[in-house]
Automatic annotation (TrEMBL):
Methyltransferase as UniProt keyword: no
Family classification: Belongs to the potassium channel family. Plant (TC 1.A.1.4) subfamily.
Membrane topology of this protein: Multi-pass membrane protein
Lineage of origin: Eukaryota, Viridiplantae, Streptophyta, Embryophyta, Tracheophyta
Membrane spanning residue stretches: 65-87, 99-118, 205-223, 282-304
Name used for this protein in its record: Potassium channel
Species in which this protein is naturally found: Datura stramonium
Sections of the chain in a coiled coil: none
Length: 688
């Protein structure tokens, strides 16, 4: 092939994209990504020099694929010609081989203009001098030797009709060096997700085996064909006139011997007859040991890869069963453990968590917004909040799967997470006198756990799935931190929470948008600080059964705990007596909050201070009285309006508790009360 033709081919390759910049398209033939060095420029924007070809260009990939097809042809024809055919000048194979050699000669020329990837910097090197030095110092000599048509040259220069010399035949076997291209192709295909890895590995193993059988059969026949006494050969002992047989019959016989020897079957009909054949058999069987080990090892690895997950699953289930039996877990807990393990086995096959964890934060956030933002923005707790807050919350959520009848939250569990249902349904369960009762349900698009998280209280009820469910989990710490950075959205969320508590706790509220903040209006005698969020439904039932009691046991417990935790800061409360028909409490927070302080006890303003035994002109305050502190959890407290003096307070307390004559009163901190004005709205007093 002339130099001018090769130059024209190069110019045709270098037009348009090849001329100025690197192609970044990854839809070409099995291209791989470039890994830029830290702080270095990205290769996608690299502009190459004139006439320099990018190794990742789709057109160059097509050229490489075309050469791979020619390599497969060369790999089959070279051993076959070496053993069975005599090179003839006018033969079709002679012309075909020379055409193939010309294409590889063009590729050698093009390689001097193909940029390469630097091993250390992972940048494309497009300097012609460096490209040439690198190629000349690596594969250039081997490529030239595998391309030179030695048998064609001897026919041309000696003017012979045929070339039967073994030396030139051996030199033509250098064309097998081109097989490195096939090896590189399989390496790329195994990493290409568009092709099944198992079948690609199987194809590679089968190809290696067939090529080994083909070469061994051809070489073994060559030994018999070149032996002085044809009758003392492995094929001549069976068929003395084997040279008169057709090429196809001799080739099939050679493949038969090669397959029988490779599989160690050894029928005995074809065996070595002379020392040359015995020596070849020795090396071939040693080679078969390595090849067989390679094939068995790869197939075992593929099978183990398929079954490893199942084996690990069985081991996990067995360990869980032994753990449950050893610790005598209840049957319901055992069922939940096994159901969770089975569901985890199914979801792990999707590898969703592994995929997300391996991505940059920005991509993970984009995926989370695409999947969960429409669900989160429709949740009642986040109605009315800014879009910016939702964008901050969604990436912090983690999706989890729960099988049916599995507990997501346990009653009185420490509040750690808030949950949003994406798919499925759950039911709310409370323990009332040791009996589980369902007090409500939630379906897709609803949330639970917000009462405990936002109020800093133990979870008021258990939550159990009724079907397989996908649930978003939001950590309490992340939620609080985001809300603190968005005080206006925090106020809206707390208002939404109060609306929900209104439905559970039996009080209503009207939100008047004023500069002072929301105004909460109560229509019963239940204070906001004593809302029963531990057992809301149970409280309602108790109120119906005990019509004469103002609050129940769990209400007083919650109010006492809140009293011990916090003092109300920067809130003003105005209360009106029962004779005015309504009671109202106006909160004026400077900055809304979502932690325990959201349920702080309001402080009440007084018009004057008094002393023990004197009247006070303060506004009406409600307090909870108890007979003694030790009995707080054993009986109900009494919710009363605070009288105007301590003497009247002792008298009312004595009447409420059956005629006792009390002389002393202490608060929840065991501090004795000696002045009526130090008693605040919502206090718990204990009479002695």
């Amino acid at each position: 092939m002339s130099f001018s033709y090769a130059k024209n081919c190069l110019q045709r390759f270098c037009v348009d994209e090849f001329q100025m910049e690197t192609e970044t398209t990854h839809s070409g033939f099995f291209s791989s990504d470039l890994l830029p060095s830290l702080g270095a420029r990205i290769n996608y924007a690299t502009k190459l020099r004139r006439f320099i070809i990018s190794p990742f260009n789709p057109r160059y990939r097509c050229w490489e694929m075309f050469l791979v097809v020619l390599v497969i042809y060369s790999a089959w024809i070279s051993p076959f010609e070496f053993a069975f055919l005599s090179y003839k000048k006018d033969d079709t194979l002679f012309i075909m081989d020379n055409i193939v050699d010309c294409f590889f000669a063009i590729d050698i020329f093009l390689t001097f203009f193909v940029a390469y990837l630097h091993r250390e910097s992972y940048l494309l090197v497009d300097e012609p001098k460096k490209i040439a030095i690198r190629y000349l110092s690596t594969w250039f000599i081997f490529d030239v030797c595998s391309t030179v048509p030695f048998q064609s040259l001897i026919l041309v220069f000696t003017d012979h009709k045929e070339s039967g010399g073994v030396g030139f035949r051996l030199l033509s076997m250098l064309r097998l060096w081109r097989l490195r291209r096939v090896s590189a192709l399989f390496a790329r295909l195994e990493k290409d997700i568009r092709f099944n890895y198992f079948w690609m590995r199987c194809t590679k193993l089968v190809s290696v085996t067939l090529f080994a059988v083909h070469c061994a059969g051809c070489f073994y026949y060559t030994i018999a064909d070149r032996y002085p006494d044809p009758k003392k050969t492995w094929i001549g002992a069976v068929n003395p006139d084997f040279k008169q047989e057709s090429v196809g019959d001799r080739y099939i016989t050679s493949l038969y011997w090669s397959i029988v020897t490779l599989t160690t079957t050894g029928y005995g009909d074809l065996h070595a007859e002379n020392s040359r054949e015995m020596l070849f058999d020795i090396f071939y069987m040693l080679f078969n040991l390595g090849l067989t080990s390679y094939i068995i090892g790869n197939m075992t690895n593929l099978v183990v890869h398929w079954t490893s997950r199942t084996r690990n699953f069985r081991d996990t289930v067995k360990a869980a069963q032994e753990f449950a039996k050893r610790n005598q877990l209840p049957p319901r807990v055992q069922d939940q453990v096994l159901s969770h393990i089975c569901l985890k086995f199914k979801t792990e096959a999707l590898k969703q968590e592994e995929t997300l964890n391996g991505l940059p934060k920005a991509i993970r956030s984009s995926i989370a917004h695409h999947l969960f933002f429409p669900i989160v923005q429709n949740v009642h707790l986040f109605q009315g909040v800014s879009r910016n807050l939702l964008f901050q919350l969604v990436p912090e959520m983690e999706a989890e799967y729960f099988p049916p009848k599995e507990d997501v939250i346990l009653q009185n569990e420490a509040p750690t997470d808030l949950y949003i249902i994406v798919l499925g349904a759950v039911e709310f369960i409370v323990q009332i006198e040791g009996i589980e009762q369902t007090i409500g349900k939630a379906v897709a698009g609803e949330l639970f756990g917000e009462i405990g998280v936002l109020c800093g209280r133990p979870q008021p009820f258990s939550v159990r799935t009724t079907e397989i469910s996908q649930i978003l989990r939001l950590n309490r710490t992340a939620l609080i931190n985001i809300l603190r950075a968005n005080p206006e959205d925090e106020r809206i969320i707390m208002n939404n929470l109060l609306l929900k508590l209104q439905g559970f706790g039996g009080f209503g509220y009207v939100d008047h948008q004023t500069n002072a903040g929301p105004e909460i209006k109560r229509h019963d005698d239940t204070a906001l600080t004593s809302i029963d969020i531990n057992n809301l439904e149970a409280r309602v039932k108790k109120q119906e059964e005990h019509d004469g009691q103002e609050v129940n046991k769990t209400m007083n417990d919650l109010s006492l705990n809140l009293e011990n935790k916090r003092e109300l800061n920067e809130h003003n409360v105005e209360l009106t007596g029962p004779d005015e028909g309504t009671k109202s409490c106006q909160f004026k927070p400077e900055v809304p909050c979502c932690s325990n302080s959201c349920l702080k006890r309001p402080t009440c303003s007084t018009s004057s201070s008094g002393s023990k035994g004197t009247k006070s002109t303060n506004h009406k305050r409600r307090i909870t009285i108890h007979m003694k502190k030790e009995s707080l959890h054993d009986q109900y407290g009494k919710l009363i309006i605070l009288p105007d003096s301590l003497e009247e307070l002792f008298r009312v307390a004595g009447q409420r508790f059956g005629g006792y004559n009390f002389k002393r009163a202490v608060n929840a901190e065991d501090a004795e009360i000696d002045d009526i004005d130090v008693i605040r709205d919502g206090d718990h007093l204990f009479f002695l």
